[in-house]
Design a protein that fits this description.
The complex is a heterodimer. Chain A contains six helices and no strands. In chain A, α2 packs antiparallel against α4, α4 packs antiparallel against α5 and α5 packs antiparallel against α6. Chain A is elongated, with a radius of gyration of 18 Å. By secondary structure, chain B is α+β, with helices and mostly antiparallel strands. Chain B is built from two helices and six strands. In chain B, the strands form two sheets. Chain B has a four-stranded antiparallel beta sheet. A two-stranded antiparallel ribbon of chain B has the order 5-6. In chain B, β5 and β6 form a beta hairpin. The two termini of chain B are 22 Å apart. In chain B, 15% of the residues are buried. Classes of the chains: A mainly alpha, B alpha+beta. Chains A and B meet through α1 of A and α1 and α2 of B.
Chain lengths: 170, 104
């Protein structure tokens, strides 16, 4: 019997499923960051707002990168539905803590897929995901550094404004 | 055609010549490309069987499935949905095994 599946698809089918789940996670992150940007905008924290607008765009780009990878390799990528996005936060510090948790969740998920790639010997997908492994380290560090500013400067009105001024979105 | 798996109601086949797959639904045989088979698999994975046992969520206990870009429409009861889920799971299992044993 011919191996038609291998002729049609260049990645493992289980990996394709996991990548589709990852697409949902990236889309969710993008939406969550947009909600955070909105809160920051409403509270006069312009740099933080810009930071989250940019983060939201980046997450969407990550999603598209995976989306295209699946389709280009003969699989089927599914456009994600996004729900469970909160717009209510207590403070800027809480927002950045949530953002870090969000990034850690995504990192763990990426590592999980890489582990599976090795198990099923899907080296193409593993190679593709290496970029995400490094990107996640960078994303986590970026937010960790911002949270350190809260530890150093506190969270009162003046400190908050100073932290916001130091948040870059380049 | 090579039989891949036979469940209680349905059977799946691979056609080497046409590089495609068939599912025999009993009264009708449907041809699938690999992408269409993936799409069916995803649709079945999304079906929440628990809703079939909750009158508020799925009063009639049926699922309406459109296949191959709406070329075919199937109305399936709970037993058939369970059976089709099993068929697709087993079919993909057999296809994976075939990939492992096919010499490169």
């Amino acid at each position: 019997m011919k191996d038609i599946v291998r002729q049609k698809i260049g990645i493992n089918v289980d990996i394709m499923d996991m990548l589709n789940e990852q697409i949902k996670k990236e889309a969710h992150s993008s939406a969550v960051y947009l909600a955070m940007a909105s809160w920051c905008d409403q509270n006069g924290l312009d740099n933080s707002a810009e930071f989250f607008y940019k983060q939201s765009t980046e997450e969407r780009e990550h999603m598209l990168r995976i989306f295209r990878f699946i389709n280009e390799n003969g699989g089927t990528a599914y456009s994600p539905e996004v729900s469970n996005v909160t717009h209510e936060f207590n403070s800027l510090q809480e927002i950045f803590e949530s953002a870090l948790d969000q990034e850690i969740t995504v990192t763990k998920s990426i590592h999980n897929i890489v582990g599976k790639c090795r198990k099923v010997q899907d080296y193409g997908s593993e190679g593709f995901l290496q970029w995400f492994v490094l990107e996640q380290m960078e994303e986590e560090n970026k937010i960790r550094k911002i949270l350190e500013m809260f530890d150093l400067m506190g969270t009162d009105g003046m400190a908050l404004k100073m932290i916001d001024e130091r948040i870059t979105h380049e | 055609m090579n039989l891949l798996y036979q469940s209680y109601y349905f059977s799946s086949y691979q056609c080497d010549r046409g590089r495609c797959f068939y599912i025999d639904f009993g009264h009708k045989e449907v041809k699938f490309s690999f992408c269409q088979l993936l799409s069916l698999r995803q649709k079945l994975q999304k079906i929440d069987l628990n809703s079939h046992f909750d009158k508020e969520l799925n009063y009639n206990g049926i699922e309406i499935l459109s296949l191959c870009n709406r070329e075919h429409l199937f109305v399936l009861d709970t037993y058939q949905v369970i059976d089709l889920k099993q068929l697709l799971k087993a079919t993909f299992g057999i296809l994976e095994l075939n990939s492992l044993v096919t010499p490169s």
